[in-house]
């Protein structure tokens, strides 16, 4: 299964994605402001790979002049419905539909992995003003929580993907893996959690691209077994999900 196929798979589950995916903590946006030395209020921001607008809404709420860039039909439509006052344009990080030197900040929330850095980095630098910045972040697995680590391994086995190593990359490795070598990069990891119903937790799992490309029978079988497992741990059907947001903010050297 190609990366492009997995990226496009989200269009089949836009409503599920919007309803169940985790958001991001205020401390993340505080860190973006700290690293860029710029308040988000009044900042011109392009949120690339905006999806249904989860991060876009938070940037807009902080007063940013934000535009959403999203390649998928259904995801873009959901973003427009959720944020009628935010412009939504079609495009992706490899070919931004934005003018040269038009943005102060470009953000990629859970979306950088769907770009090709040899193309997306020059595109970002083209669109950014001279003192602009790229902010890239992911909600990553809290491997120190035993049930979360065990679930991560079960998902990888079922979806026939490679589980992430429990050791997190150091700063230099993270910069290299993200394709940001040659830029000035600051990094911060922020731990946070949310408590959701078991149904929402399972819907969140099912909205991941590795599941969306499976046939329905395989998806249903895993989620039914996972419901049984988790009820042994969360008797009240409320699940505490713990995340570690990994943030990289890159500027010109």
Question: Explain this structure to me?
Answer:
- This protein has helices at residues 3-8, 14-20, 26-36, 54-61, 73-82, 117-127, 146-159, 171-177, 198-206, 209-212, 216-233, and strands spanning 44-48, 65-69, 88-89, 103-109, 128-141, 184-197, 238-251.
- It has 253 residues and is of the alpha/beta class.
- It has a single domain, classed as Vaccinia Virus protein VP39 (Rossmann fold, 3-Layer(aba) Sandwich), CATH 3.40.50.
- Strand 4 (103-109), helix 6 (117-127) and strand 5 form a beta-alpha-beta unit.
- Helix 9 runs antiparallel to helix 11.
- The longest helix has 18 residues, at 216-233.
- The chain is globular and about 55 Å long.
- It starts with a helix and ends with a strand.
- The mean pLDDT is 93.
Name some characteristics of this structure.
11 helices, 253 residues, globular, single chain, Rossmann fold
């Amino acid at each position: 299964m190609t990366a492009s196929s997995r990226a496009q798979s989200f269009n089949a589950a836009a409503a599920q994605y919007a309803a169940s995916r985790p958001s991001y903590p205020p401390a993340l946006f505080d860190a973006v402001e700290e690293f860029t030395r710029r308040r988000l209020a009044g900042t011109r921001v392009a949120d690339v790979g905006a999806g249904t607008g989860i991060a876009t809404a938070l940037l807009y709420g902080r007063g940013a002049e934000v535009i959403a860039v999203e390649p998928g039909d259904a995801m873009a439509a959901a973003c427009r419905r959720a944020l009628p006052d935010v412009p939504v344009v079609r495009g992706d990080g490899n070919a931004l539909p934005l003018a040269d030197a038009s943005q102060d900040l470009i953000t990629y929330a859970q979306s950088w992995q769907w770009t090709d850095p040899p193309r997306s980095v020059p595109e970002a630098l083209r669109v950014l003003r001279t003192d602009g910045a790229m902010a890239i972040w992911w909600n990553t697995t809290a491997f120190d929580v035993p049930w979360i680590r065990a679930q991560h391994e079960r998902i990888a086995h079922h979806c026939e993907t490679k589980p992430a190593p429990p050791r997190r990359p150091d700063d230099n490795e993270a910069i290299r893996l993200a394709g940001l070598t040659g830029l000035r990069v600051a990094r911060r990891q922020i731990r946070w959690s949310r408590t959701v119903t078991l149904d929402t937790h399972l819907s969140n799992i099912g909205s991941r691209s590795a599941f969306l490309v499976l046939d329905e029978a395989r998806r249903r079988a895993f989620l039914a077994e996972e419901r049984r497992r988790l009820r042994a741990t969360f008797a009240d059907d409320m699940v505490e999900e713990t995340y570690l947001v990994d943030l990289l903010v890159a500027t010109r050297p």
